Request: fold
Amino acid sequence: MNLVNISEPDKKKSNNILCLGIDFGTTNSVCSVKIDEKIIYIEDSKKKLIPSIVLFKNQKVYIGNQIKNSSISELIFSVKRFFTENPDQIIFDQGSNKKTAIDISKEIFSYIKNLSQDYLKQNIDDCVLTVPAYFDEKARSGIMRAAFLAGLNVRRLINEPTAAAFAYGLEKKKRGLFLVYDLGGGTFDVSILELKEGIFRVLGTGGNSKLGGDDLDILFAESILKKYFSVNLNEVDNDLKLKTIKKCKSIKEKLLNKKSVSEKIKLEEDEKQINIESQLLNQSIEKLIDKTIAIVENLLNECDVSISSVDGFILVGGSTRLEIVKEKLKNKFKINIFSELDPDLVVSCGAAMHGYELLNGSKNLLLDVTPLSLGIETMGGLMEKIIPRNSPIPAIREQIFTTNENGQTSIKIKILQGEREVTSANNILDEFVLSGLEPKPAGIPRIKVRFSLDVDGILFVSAIDESSGKENNLVIKTNEQLSIQEMRELVSSSIQNAKKDIDLRLLIETKIKATKLINEINNVKPMMNKLCTTKESKEITKIIKLMKIELKSDNKDKISNLIDDLNDKTKNFAQKIIDSNFSNFVGKEIDLLDKS
Reply:
């Protein structure tokens, strides 16, 4: 069943120039915004790092620093890792409460959005969202869907290493090579960025998805237990193990600025006040840091890049604050290291800076346009364009549609690409069904269809029934199916066939109008026989018969004339219906008064 277009509310954008820069991390997330040349970090319980963890408990959702004193078995964490597998798989199953990676991430994005609005005291929907450079299209589109479902307008999806380079202003250079070393809480990523005329390109990526700051903490905890308690970490029970690792993580962070710290550590009944030196930390994690350096060397070899041609390392991730990391990189590669900015915050900072330029129209920012129109099929096989060709991207547009048949409970949304007026002459990208609608008369439901297209050609389409809240959506890569030459041919074809296409559209729309009119009269035929004279009924029936005959032809003018004739002949009938309903209404009121 098709949709009918009933309005085209092209909402004007506000003058709001704010754009969130969101670094959705495996362990922690960070959100910032550029205001008056300053980067403002959104705080969660007075902390800039928002743990990427979710807790469902007592039919409530707790996120980030809201979560206090919960067992680790209750928590959902490291959800970002599932996007490289299958973001639609169920990762949380609690009876009727089943959640995918997208569902969980949506909760985190919603929390970040609400935090931002509370912190800034104003509504803010636009954001630049960062993703690892190695994320494939499936993972990227999954992240986009999660953010979109949280009510965020993702203005651009950029690679995390590119965002870090933006934070240092490196895009202002003409050209260069940069190596981004990202040692986060749960993963290690390394990327080589090539800069040409202010545009970054990722030459290659490497890393280890199971190597990060958490592993450093475990190694450090093992060293402390062996040295001071003569116990292996794996010999203690799970809860004590986790508490010990957490304690050692705290010690590690204190050693960032000190040579030694004195701490009290309790292992079951054995409690000791011990003096821990940074040397012990360095010795315990040295092999792991060497492993990251080997990964860097492998990537340089794979990309055939000489270290002498690299302009510098950009350090990202909280673990790069460790002095041993900087020392080993300097000693091994002997090149410049960018580490002045907080490595935990640098990615979000770059995203916020990029978002600011994007919304404020920086002359240095290259804006793309969509090469072909995008839309959906409506009644009669017509294409309704939602994002027209040559619209600047990223672009977000929405339109309201309705049903064309009584009692529809489902609607097929067919997504089209092209410039022609009818579906058959355009490229069909994909389709999905919005089901579970409340059965209502044709023309009553309001179905909001929303298109969000990013600069990478990823199109997010959602359809929602405004009365019931039923929603469905999908993500499409719009520029995969057609070459540039094929796109040009489609545009050329639309120009050559413009008159024929418009005539065909007008014919189809006229036939739809005639069919709708016939159906409306058939629905009230018993009333027509009751309220109209025999002559009036015969005249109306005659026109309908002629109209049905002409609907089999392609004579638009004849059908239009019959529509006018039918409208004219049914004027008296329509007035009689109005009068009859009014009389019935008045009569009921009198009856009620008499009974009182």
About this structure: The two ends are 50 Å apart (CA to CA). The longest helix spans residues 498-523. The longest strand covers residues 199-208.
